[in-house]
Specification:
- There is one protein chain.
- About 25% of the residues lie in helices and about 25% in strands.
- The chain has helices at about 60-70, 85-105, 120-125, 125-130, 150-160, 210-230, 310-315, 335-350, 375-395, 410-420, 455-465; strands at about 20-25, 30-35, 75, 80-85, 110, 115, 135-140, 145, 170-180, 195-205, 235-240, 250-255, 260-265, 270-275, 295-305, 315-320, 325, 330-335, 365-370, 400-405, 425-430, 440-445, 450-455.
- The strands form six sheets. Strands 5, 9, 10, 11, 12, 13, 14, 15 and 18 form a nine-stranded mixed sheet that branches. Strands 20-19-21-22-23 form a five-stranded mixed sheet. A three-stranded antiparallel sheet has the order 6-8-7.
- Helix 9 (about 375-395) links the parallel strand 19 (about 365-370) and strand 20.
Length: about 475
C-alpha cells in the first residue's frame, strides 16, 4: 500500500548474525528468537578490544577484530577457536550450499577418520615431506598416527580396498566436510590461518587422463558457481602443486590487502597466476602482452590434477572393459569452510560493521520494537509481534531466521547501530510511524543500501524474495 517514501545510501552489506534459543509464545504463534537469549558475548564499543586474542605487536586483520567483537569466535589456544552459535549457523548454511554444488557434479559425501596411520603417509613419502606442520602422535601401543591436514592417502587406500571396482562405477567423486589440523608455526589473523579448521575436500577417480581432466574442469566450474552464489569477488589463478603433488593446480583467491599470496593478473582476464609459479620476472600477459597488475589474495579453494601419484602407491585400480586392472586417474579439490567465512567478512565488511554473503548470514532479519516507556511502546510492541507472527506464517522458510531485539531498555538508535555492526541483511523497526493508520515500519535493506517505509504487507512482499539454503 504505502510504498517507499525515502531512501538513502548505506554501506554495502550482506549479513545476518545470531544463534539463539527459541522462546515459546502463545499456542499457535511462532517461536520467537530473542536477542537477549543468544549465546553471543558482544563487545561492540567503538574500538573495543576486550577479549582480544592477539599479543602486543602481533598483526591483526578486519575479520579477526570484527568476529571477536561480534561474539562470533572466542579464542581457546593459539590458532584454535570456539565457534559461537551464530558462526555455526553460517557454517552450516555454507556447507549446505557446498553440498548442493558437489552433488550437482555427482559428488557422494562420506566421512574419513581424522586420525591417519603414519604408515600411509610414509608410503606416499609425505610423512617426512610435510615436516613439522604435521601433528604427529603415538597411541599406547607405540603406533604412529597424524591428525589429517588432508586425506589423499586415506581415500586412496579406501578405494584400493574395493577389489572389484569396475570402470562402470567410474567416475567416482567422493567428498567430506571435516575438521583438519595443521601445526602452523605462527597462527594469525583469526580463522584465516589457524591450527584447526574445517575444509570441504573432494577426491575423484576416473578411468583415463582425458576423463580426469574433464572432471577437473567440472569441479572448477562448481567452485565458480559457489562463489558466484555467495557474491564473492574471486579470481582463479594457476598455482604450485606443493606437498600434495600432481601436474596441474589452481587456486581460488579473494583479492585482499591482508592476503598472504601475491598474484599477477591480466587486465583483460586472459591470465592469472600466483607469483610462486612464475619463472623469472614475468611482467606481461603471455596471451595479449598487456602489462600484468599485481595484487594480494586470500586462498579459499585449491584444485589439483594428481594423475596416478597416489593410486600407484596404494594400488587403487579398476577393471577396464577388457577386464584388465588399470590405475585410476585422480584429482583432489579443497574449499576452506571456516576460511571462506572469515575471508567473506574480510572483503565485504566495513571497518566496524560485519557484512556476510546474504545466503549464509546467520540470521536474515532483526526486529527492533519501541523503547520501553516510549509513547509508541504499547501499540508498537504489539504490532511488531503481530508482524513477526504473520511473517513466520506467510514465509515459513524465514521463521527460524528472524531475531527479535528485546533489549527495550536501549534506544532504537542504539539497537539499530548494533544490528548494523552485526550485519543483518534486513532490520525492521517499529518507529514513530508505527502508530499511523495503517502502521508503517522502517525497513533497513542493507544489501541494497537503502531504507524503506512499508506497511506490513510491503514488508512481507519485500522479504518474500529472500533466499536461505
Amino acid at each position: 500500500m504505502e510504498a517507499l517514501l525515502r531512501r538513502w545510501r548505506l554501506p554495502a552489506l550482506s549479513a545476518r548474525q545470531r544463534g539463539c534459543r527459541p522462546r515459546h509464545g502463545a499456542p499457535g504463534r511462532a517461536k520467537r528468537l530473542l536477542l537477549s537469549q543468544l549465546f553471543q558475548p558482544l563487545n561492540l564499543q567503538a574500538g573495543g578490544e576486550a577479549g582480544w586474542d592477539g599479543r602486543a605487536g602481533e598483526p591483526t586483520c578486519r575479520s579477526q577484530k570484527l568476529m571477536l567483537q561480534g561474539g562470533l569466535i572466542h579464542p581457546s589456544s593459539p590458532g584454535c577457536y570456539y565457534y559461537m552459535p551464530p558462526t555455526v549457523r553460517a557454517m552450516e548454511k555454507l556447507i549446505k550450499v557446498m553440498d548442493e554444488e558437489m552433488q550437482a557434479v555427482a559428488g557422494q559425501k562420506l566421512n574419513m577418520p581424522s586420525l591417519s596411520l603414519a604408515e600411509l603417509w610414509r608410503a606416499s613419502g609425505r610423512w617426512d615431506q610435510m615436516g613439522p606442520e604435521l601433528f604427529r602422535l603415538l597411541d599406547r601401543h607405540g603406533k604412529g598416527y597424524c591428525l589429517g591436514p588432508t586425506h589423499e592417502e586415506a581415500v586412496t587406500e579406501l578405494v584400493a580396498a574395493q577389489s572389484n571396482l569396475s570402470y562402470k562405477q567410474l567416475p567416482l567423486r567422493l567428498y567430506q566436510v571435516t575438521r583438519k589440523f595443521r601445526d602452523e608455526p605462527k597462527p594469525r589473523f583469526g580463522l584465516l590461518r589457524s591450527r584447526e579448521f574445517y575444509m570441504k575436500d573432494m577426491y575423484t577417480f576416473d578411468d583415463s587422463e582425458e576423463a580426469a581432466r574433464q572432471t577437473y574442469d567440472l569441479v572448477c566450474d562448481a567452485y565458480r558457481s559457489l562463489f558466484d552464489r555467495l557474491g564473492l569477488p574471486f579470481v582463479r589463478v594457476q598455482a604450485a602443486t606443493g606437498s600434495i603433488g600432481g601436474t596441474v593446480s589452481h587456486e581460488f583467491q579473494l583479492p585482499a590487502d591482508i592476503g598472504e599470496d601475491r598474484l599477477v593478473l591480466c587486465p583483460a582476464g586472459h591470465f592469472a597466476a600466483n607469483v610462486e609459479t612464475l619463472s623469472g620476472e614475468q611482467t606481461s600477459c603471455p596471451v595479449c602482452r598487456e602489462k600484468l597488475t599485481q595484487t594480494r589474495g586470500i586462498e579459499v579453494g585449491h584444485t589439483f590434477y594428481l594423475g596416478t601419484k597416489y593410486s600407484c602407491v596404494f594400488n587403487a585400480v579398476f577393471y577396464s572393459s577388457e577386464n584388465k586392472p588399470q590405475l585410476a586417474e585422480m584429482g583432489c579439490y579443497g574449499l576452506g569452510v571456516t576460511r571462506i567465512l572469515a575471508a567473506s567478512i574480510e572483503v565485504l565488511s566495513t571497518e566496524d560493521s560485519i557484512r556476510w554473503p546474504s545466503l549464509i548470514a546467520p540470521y536474515q532479519l532483526c526486529f527492533i520494537p519501541p523503547k520501553r516507556g516510549s509513547k509508541e511502546e504499547a501499540e508498537g510492541a504489539a504490532l511488531m509481534e503481530r508482524l513477526y507472527d504473520d511473517l513466520a506464517e506467510a514465509l515459513p522458510h524465514l521463521a527460524g531466521d528472524s531475531v527479535l531485539d528485546d533489549r527495550t531498555q536501549l534506544t532504537i538508535g542504539k539497537r539499530l547501530k548494533d544490528a548494523n555492526k552485526l550485519g543483518y541483511p534486513y532490520v525492521v523497526i517499529a518507529g514513530k510511524r508505527v502508530c499511523e493508520d495503517p502502521p508503517v515500519f522502517e525497513v533497513w535493506n542493507q544489501n541494497a543500501g537503502e531504507v524503506l517505509f512499508l506497511t506490513k504487507e510491503g514488508v512481507i512482499e519485500l522479504l518474500s524474495k529472500v533466499q536461505v539454503p
